[in-house]
Design brief:
Layout (H helix, E strand, L loop, with lengths): L2 H6 L4 E3 L4 E5 L2 E6 L2 E6 L3 H8 L9 H4 L5 H16 L3 E3 L13 H6 L1 H10 L3 H10 L2 E4 L3 H12 L4 E4 L10 H13 L5 E4 L16 E4 L5 H11 L6 E8 L2 E4 L11 H10 L3 H12 L13 H20 L9 E6 L5 E5 L10 H5 L26 H10 L25 E8 L5 E8 L3 H19 L9 H8 L3 E3 L20 E6 L5 E5 H4 L18 E4 L2 H23 L5 E2 L9 H13 L3 E5 L9 E8 L6 E8 L2 H24 L36 H10 L4 E5 L3 H5 L3 E7 L15 E3 L2
């Protein structure tokens, strides 16, 4: 009975100032703006009125319970423990002695509300306030926002604030700021307003001695801020920017040495999310010579006051530590018309030149290639997926999805009819060129469809936005060739057939062989087939081998299956492989396949399922579904590769029917057709596949990843893995790779022909 009491008897509870307690018929309700709890006891309210005034952090629970009986002590223990658990109170440590940062009595009296505010959230309020007061702050800007920031700092107790000479003008009414500083000095709270002397553009050397630098707008605001970001924040200094971006005011992120995610990252994200004109204006203002007059929109007096006070408050939060700084790892975005405000996390942008090295530190290549592992339910068609696990995984990826600064903007699947299949679509900003709505489908849950759509969108994002890391050219390539085997472009299954006439690629990257774990050099154009490394079309522009998943091993599994799908499909197109029809009777009574075939009839789609003969080569199962749509006369197709035949059949049918289900709704709304991501094999007419024989494979047949790799090895082939991770996707739990397959006998020792691979001597 006394366990709760004994656990907290030596603590000193301090109840928060915003906690209220209210009498109820059954006891007492403790509550604040964020929630509450009820204490059931007829004497609970009387009990609270006697106890709460003493929960001020000065008394131990044991002291408060002296002379009380066992039942009363147990009640105190339960109440205090609940207050701690709900964060309605905190345990106050015993002071170690006199403060090392004594605060003058006049300052304590004048700024009592500020000290009380700190005390509401944290211990040692006077010391924390003194940290804020003695922090030297430079406000770099000559606009009204800078003026209001200086005024907010002065009014709340800052003792040393630097400003630019151009801020002290009648238009900015800076005389009012000086008057308030003078009045504070008369009350025994001196304030120093310093003019920052700069010979030309403001540099970090001009700001030496300041602990926090706030940069606002004005005619030179963006250019000035860019120079400081480009030069790098010095040790011991924090930088907080504020700028207008189109019809939005953006505050943050907080920048300190060694942290990724800077102002340039924020601009790249904001520009990609739709305001390309604002981005163009901002970058041109930075790059082109200054002109007379404003170069862009300036905040009005009301908005300037809001942003300026917000900046001052952010310095207060940062230096006192009473609350976390709102701009640490995120930006605050305010609409300049409605004044609506939202804070969004900011992940380092892969194309930011200032954060590139810091972000890359978290994406180091593994010492060995990860062995493929079976993908989770979202990547296949599990008969009974764990819905709670899917939702938990989806929630863990929410950091990637934000309307202003996310890798992805939002899910756009609310309008779709979620029957017979579940549909997930996500908006992917691909730069200043616009957005793509990447779609995916699932038999069971929208969460599963959304996770698959995120993986597909991650593959497209990696291909079109994320720079390829570790590219070797020139002398670095020559050095690598001395001890690393190179695989020629023609030896890869993604070779387009032009490699024989093309000049040898100038850019290469390191891959790791899944056969023996050895490093291998592969052409960069084979890893980024849609980009400039493949401008000559030496490699087919394809997603073959692109894999995304929760881990590198899961991504490798998906990439390997994707590469096998492409290889089987190309062989079928060229007539060197098989395409055998699969009779529906061969599905037996499998409930998922029965549901998909029934859904096809309901949609009026007569579909055909073809086995592309991959089991005879690698033991993997690759099936293609195709159909002629009576609605449009269009031929559609979908291919799926799995270790298990049933899942491959279900995956191909699911993606085929999903295209028609969603395509009907998109056509009815006059929107672009279904976008499943970049193509596996572009411009394929599925009717061109010649059908031979009939597949007699059983629906329950299955293989394993070790078996696939062994079959590849026996055929003189190998799978090569290139990590393509980016720090932002990893933050949301998505790892990406590219898997490349070699053709038969391209691997040394795998057969008579070894011309596809070489080692420079």
């Amino acid at each position: 009975m006394l366990e709760a009491y004994e656990a907290i008897a030596e603590t000193r509870p301090r109840i928060r100032r915003d906690v209220l307690f209210t009498e109820t018929p059954d006891g007492v309700l403790f509550h604040n703006a964020h929630g509450g709890f009820h204490l059931n006891s007829r004497s609970g309210y009387r009990f609270a009125t006697l106890l709460v005034p003493h929960l001020n952090g000065e008394h131990r629970v044991a002291d408060l319970c002296e002379g009380l009986g066992e039942a009363q002590r147990a009640m105190v223990g339960r109440l205090v423990r609940t207050l701690y658990e709900r964060e309605f109170a905190r345990d106050t440590p015993v002071p170690d002695g006199p403060s090392a940062f004594p605060v003058a009595p006049a300052v304590v009296e004048r700024f009592a509300p500020q000290i009380a505010y700190v005390d509401h959230y944290a211990d040692d309020a006077a010391r924390r306030f003194q940290e804020f007061r003695t922090t030297r702050v430079a406000v770099v800007g000559d606009d009204l926002t800078a003026r209001w920031c200086v005024l907010g700092l002065v009014r709340n107790g800052s003792a040393a604030v630097g400003h630019l000479p151009g801020l002290d003008t009648p238009e900015n009414r800076f005389g009012e700021v000086r008057a308030e500083a003078t009045a504070l000095a008369a009350e025994g709270c001196p304030v120093t307003l310093e003019t920052i002397a700069a010979d030309g553009p403001v540099r970090w050397s001009d700001l030496a001695g300041y602990d926090v630098v706030v940069v606002t707008g004005g005619r030179e605001g963006a250019r000035r801020l860019f120079r400081l970001v480009e030069a790098g924040v010095p040790e011991g200094t924090s930088l907080i920017p504020a700028a207008l971006f189109g019809d939005r005011a953006v505050v943050g992120p907080l920048m300190t040495p060694g942290t990724a995610g800077c102002w340039a990252c924020a601009v790249l994200r904001l520009g990609a999310h739709g305001d390309a004109a604002a981005a163009a204006d901002l970058w041109s203002g930075i790059c082109l010579p200054a002109t007379d007059g404003p170069t862009g929109r300036e905040a009005g007096r009301g908005l300037s006051a809001m942003i300026g006070n917000l900046l001052g408050y952010e310095v207060f939060r940062l230096t006192t530590g009473a609350l976390p700084a709102e701009t640490r790892g995120q930006v605050i975005v305010q609409d300049t018309e409605s004044f609506d405000v939202v804070a969004e996390p900011l992940l380092p942008h892969p194309r930011c030149p200032f954060c590139r090295d810091l972000a890359a530190a978290g994406t180091a290549e593994p010492a060995a290639a990860p062995a493929p592992e079976e993908p989770g339910p979202a990547g296949g068609t599990a008969a009974a997926p764990d819905t709670e696990a899917l939702l938990a995984e989806l929630n863990s990826r929410q950091i990637l999805i934000r309307p202003h600064t996310g890798v992805f903007e939002k899910f756009t699947d609310e309008p779709w009819t979620q029957t017979p299949l579940k549909v997930g679509t996500v908006s992917l900003p691909t730069g200043h060129s616009g957005h793509r709505n990447i779609a995916a489908f699932d038999v069971h849950t929208v969460a599963g469809a959304r996770l698959t759509a995120l993986n597909a969108a991650a593959g497209a994002y990696t291909e079109h936005v994320v720079p390829l890391r570790g590219v070797l050219t020139g002398e670095a390539l020559d050095d690598a060739r001395r001890d690393t085997r190179a695989v020629a472009a023609a030896a890869l299954t993604v070779a387009s057939g032009l490699a024989a006439d093309a000049v040898e690629p100038a850019a290469w990257v390191r891959a790791t062989s899944l056969a023996d774990g050895e490093p291998v050099l592969v052409p960069a154009g084979a890893v980024r087939t849609f980009g400039p490394y493949n401008r000559d079309g030496v490699h087919t522009r394809t997603t073959a081998g692109t894999g995304a998943g929760r881990t590198a091993a899961e991504a490798t599994a998906r990439g390997l299956l994707s590469a096998l799908c492409h290889d089987a499909l190309e062989r079928a197109v060229r007539g060197t492989g098989g395409a055998a029809p699969v009779a529906p009777e061969g599905f037996g009574d499998d409930p998922e396949l029965t549901f998909l075939l029934s859904s096809a009839r309901n949609l009026g789609v007569e579909c055909e399922l073809l086995d592309l003969g991959e089991p005879a080569r690698s033991s993997a199962h690759v099936l293609l579904a195709r159909a002629l749509l009576p609605r449009t006369g269009e031929r559609i197709w979908a291919v799926a590769g799995e270790t298990d035949r049933r899942r491959a059949a279900a995956g191909a049918l699911r993606d085929l029917l999903g295209q028609e289900q969603l395509g009907r709704e998109l056509a009815g709304r006059g929107e672009p057709p279904v976008d499943l991501g970049d193509p596996l094999l572009g411009d394929l007419d599925p009717a061109a596949l010649a059908v031979t024989g009939t597949s007699d494979a059983r629906v329950g047949e299955a293989t394993s990843y070790p078996a696939i790799l062994e079959r590849l090895r026996a055929a003189g082939r190998e799978a090569l893995v290139v990590p393509t991770d980016s720090a932002d996707l990893l933050a949301g739990g998505i790892s990406t790779v590219r898997v490349l397959l070699t053709r038969e006998d391209a691997r040394p020792g795998g057969g008579e022909h070894t011309g596809g691979a070489s080692r420079a001597r």
